[in-house]
Amino acid sequence: MDAQAPEFYDAEADDKDEAWVQKMRGSHKSDALLSCPLCFTTLCIDCQQHAVYDNQFRAMFVMNCRQEAGQQLAQQQQQQQPEQQQQPGQAAAGAQQQQEGPASSQPPPSSRLNPVCCAVCETEVGLRDATDGVYIFINVFASNS
Question: Where are the annotated segments for Disordered (predicted)?
């Protein structure tokens, strides 16, 4: 019986793929490789994990991502205000003043954020800070690098 080699098998494919990945990554040390959670398309190979939130990453260089330029979110700075002691009769008056106050009492937005989607399946995967160009990945599948 004459055995034929499988038509779709390449014994060297894994080695070729590994060489391509190392060529693309260069000498970068990344905290994770980020992929789309829906279609598993690679989104980023060089990122930094957030110090507090383990499921958040930031990156400068991405692939297979599309920025939603028409949509924009505003992130406002958090201001610490000391709690003021109010007399029981003053609570209602203070609440009215806050409601009637001018709209300009809101702090100006500190940064503009654009939603970022996977270019393949259009799943929203994070945000891009328009002021400094940093991508913030929130909804991604992270694997060890």
Answer: 72-112
